[in-house]
Design goal:
Layout (H helix, E strand, L loop, with lengths): L5 E9 L5 H11 L3 E13 L2 E7 L2 H15 L3 E4 L5 H11 L6 E3 L14 H5 L1 H7 L2 E2 L3 H6 L2 H8 L3 E3 L8 E7 L6 E6 L9 H14 L4 H17 L25
Parallel strand pairs: 1-2, 1-4, 4-5, 5-6
Antiparallel strand pairs: 2-3, 7-8, 8-9
Helix pairs in contact: 1-8, 2-3, 3-5, 8-9
């Protein structure tokens, strides 16, 4: 039996289960990976918003990462909500030493609109973007990072996600230094149940990269996984509800 790829998600916990560590673990599992976690922050969160945030001590974040990497090993890393500049620094210290794919989702604002990163934390993202195989900003995050011009000047690979833009179609652009830009266009799935789409996409990309897919193929498969999960949303909650990760069966595997 071939062991599953080992995926470490470094992110915040969503008590409502729709985003963060919980969405990552569901995604990794449904795509055939083995999920490990280093929790950076606890949130009191549901479909209507984020009601409280408690960052974890940076030393504890580092200890979680070290425990997973030193004993179990790791084939890819997904980074999401970090919680503080100090946490961003210790995460950068760890991932810079790893020779595996790293997908960085620069989480700044929750789907509900709650801020999840202050200015100092955003400044600390620079090291993580340089260490990452791919950075996955949405529309407001890309703007906060300086836009396309600034990202190209950094010389990093990124996917500009278009789900937050207006229009009947969603346009996602994969920009890799030295390569032709890859663009995906698809009809917008009209639903209020979109909580955790960014977390799901980034953890799916990390899992598919660990399985050996090329970057563009991993993005393509991850996008299809997110769309299937959006269509299978269970309808929970009064606000932005969670995706239906559990309904995307492996016999519909987008990585195949």
């Amino acid at each position: 039996m071939i062991p599953p790829p080992r995926i470490l998600t470094i992110a915040g916990s969503d008590s409502g289960g729709g985003a963060g560590i919980q969405a990552d673990i569901k995604t990794i599992t449904m795509l055939g990976g083995y999920a490990m976690s280093a929790i950076c922050a606890l949130t009191a969160q549901d479909t209507t918003g984020v009601h409280g945030v408690l960052p974890v001590d940076p030393a504890m974040v580092a200890a979680q990462i070290d425990a997973c990497v030193d004993d179990i090993g790791v084939d890819a890393v997904k980074i999401g909500m970090l919680g503080s500049p100090a946490i961003a620094a210790v995460v950068a210290d760890r991932v810079e030493r790893l020779a595996v794919p790293v997908v960085f989702d620069p989480v700044m604002i929750a789907t509900s609109g709650a801020a999840l990163a202050d200015a100092a934390t955003i400044d600390a993202f620079e090291r993580l973007m340089r260490a990452a195989t791919l950075t996955t900003p949405n529309v407001p995050e890309l703007a906060a990072l300086g836009g396309d011009a600034a990202m190209r000047a950094r010389g990093v690979a990124y996917i500009a996600k278009g789900g937050d833009a207006d229009g009947d179609e969603v346009v996602d652009r994969l920009v890799v230094p030295g390569r032709t830009e890859r663009v995906w266009t698809a009809p917008r799935i009209v639903t209020r149940h979109t909580h955790g789409t960014g977390c799901t996409l980034s953890s799916a990309i990390a899992t598919l990269l660990a399985r050996g897919l090329a970057l563009a193929d991993a993005v393509d498969g991850a996008r299809r996984f997110v769309r299937a999960a959006l269509e299978a949303a269970p309808g929970f909650g009064a606000g932005h509800g969670p995706l239906g990760h559990q309904a995307v069966r492996q016999d519909r595997d987008p990585g195949s």
